Amino acid sequence: MLETIRNKINSVFSKIFLFLLAASFALWGVGDIFSAKKDPTLAKVGNLEVTANEFISTYQRILTELSNKTNGNINEEIAKSIGVPKQTLNQLINEKIIDIEIEKANIILPDRHLKKLIFSSPLFKDQFGQFNQNQFDYVLRQLGMEEKDYFMEIRQSILRDQLRNTFKTSQDISNMIDNTYYLIRNESRSIETINFLPSAFESKRKPDTSAIKEELNKNINKYQVPEYRKFTLMSIKPADLMGSIKLNNENIRKEYDNNPEKFNQKETRDLYLANFNTQEKAEEIINLINEEAISSNEKKLKDIFLNVITKNTKNTEESLKLGYISTLDLPEEVANSVFSASKSKLIGPEKTPFGWRIFYINDIKPKIILTYEDVKDKIEKELKVSMALERMYELGNTFYDELAAGNNIKDAASLIEGNIIEINYIDINGKDIKNKIIENLPPYPDLMDTVFSTNLGEASEIKNTISNIMYAIQVEDIKTSRNMNFDEAKDKIVQNLILEDQIDIAKREAEKFYNEYQNNKDFEKLTKKYNLIVINSPNIKRDGSGSEGIINKIAAEQIFQLNKSEITKPISYNNGFTISKIINITASNPADNKDQITEINGNIIDGINSDILDLYINNLSNKHNIKINNELFESLFLNNS
Prior knowledge:
By secondary structure, this protein is of the alpha+beta class. The chain has 4 domains: about 1-170 and about 615-635, Orthogonal Bundle (Triger factor/SurA peptide-binding fold); about 190-220 and about 490-585, Chitinase A, domain 3 (Roll), CATH 3.10.50; about 225-245 and about 375-485, Chitinase A, domain 3 (Roll); about 265-365, Chitinase A, domain 3, CATH 3.10.50.40. Helix content is about 50%, strand content about 15%. The protein is built from 24 helices and 19 strands. The strands form 6 sheets. A 4-stranded antiparallel sheet has the order 16-3-18-17. A hairpin with a 2-residue loop joins strand 17 and strand 18. Helix 1 crosses helix 2 (about 50-70), helix 1 (about 1-25) packs across helix 7 (about 145-165) and helix 11 (about 250-260) crosses helix 17. It starts with a helix and ends in a 6-residue tail after the last helix.
């Protein structure tokens, strides 16, 4: 059982650390909303309780996870609408049921085993793979937990997993996946595709006035004049303020003296490190390296070092690489010897509290000291930018105060020396009434969205760009969207009607090609006859990958229903039509995809296990006395926004 627990321990620690850390960032504010003495019971399962604070911290953690996984698309309101609060409470009740069953079954985890497992967690190890008490203390501080509380949380999670694991099956359904997924889903096909584009065919259609009016009346929604807005843009950037900022040599010198680490680079060395439990093993490796170095004058010492260690230990080349580090990154007992040796040297075996170590020095970046004169101009510029940014936010507050006092955006901007640009009528795509791109429109993120979401006569909030430019707009006038009249729509309608005719011609030509191929089967001759370009797609899959921009989903589905040398019927795509010929069919080889098959197999088995556990919990729920304080539950969501 201990070995099973050991296999699970890394994921358990990671999950608990993330869950507890996420819970510390409360969506209702930092800290519990109930004191320890007044933490009411939200639900009771037998003699165990789910408290209000326990529910809230769990719910906050789940909300944080949902928000992170969906890039903020799921907020608290959406979570409520899809039942996350109730699901969270049910989850906590289920955990209490499992806790009761653990106690009944007398499942325990001795303290000595728990400590051993915790101390072996990567979460608490230093860069050399050893348990680090400072790292352990740091994690507990981040969680805001005492050591005994953390041990209790880990113990409970492991015990719950032990009970859940009794319902897990290890049945392997890889063969089924081979046959139903990879042999079918991952089959690939090589195709040749031709396009019948409307632009390749000349239309003789010349729509008259009656045809134009008929089209306008029938499809009036297609012919709209977009909404146009006229607005004033205020912007301010650090460069606008830097000229007025004066610094003396004393200010600049003080920055240099107070921050030497910014201007002086310590010596760093690119190191490889191998750890060994015994001196004998370390010396054995050193001897092997020296022997190979003597017998082979052509090989570099680095290559010999990596080759010997990867062959005689479980280390990989990547796991041996430490990268560039300074003396502060190494234990004091080995830092001196490593940093006093020259490049391309082997150091060790070195005895440390964590075992025996062998270092290889791959490269050296010497210490760099920049004088005050070297960095004076750079410091001055950085200080001015920093002061300008601070000044910008002060001016932003002044700008808002002026708007609140009733001033328009131009008057408010003049008081903070902001730049003003007046943009005449423009649509949301940045085009003017003549359908031309506005040339002096600044490329600020979300500018057009801001313009078209601000009410007439109002100023927007100040926006910040990644280049530290602040801007705001005020909408001066709006020309609302409307239906085009005959004169406005005429040219567009003529173009559309001619395009419709060209599409019909393209369709007829594609159908003609398809019928001719069915008769004589000579694809190459027909493509020359119709003067068509053939596009090769040597490896497409059922999901359309490998043919992006060449065929659509409908064509991909039809391609995988055909045999070699057959062609698809003409399929509409981007106003034109495509026809594809199957050149070759390559069956999937499951043996080439063992890792993916194993992953899919695991996901399916996990789903089955979860269903079995749910059935078990549901059955136990009927045997336990479960009481929920619904009034308290509802009250938690009345005023928490």
